[in-house]
Amino acid sequence: MKVHGLLLQRHAGGAEARRHEGRVAVDERNTRWCSDGLGIAAENGERVRVAFALDCCDREAMSFVATTGGITGEDVRDLMVAAVEHRFGPVNQLPAPIEWLTDNGSCYLAREIGLTPRTTPLESPQSNGMAEAFVRTLKRDYVRVSPIPDAGSVLRQLPLWLAHYNELHPHRALGYRSPQEFIARSTQESLSGL
Question: pLDDT band at residue 106, thresholds of 50, 70 and 90?
Answer without folding.
Answer: very low
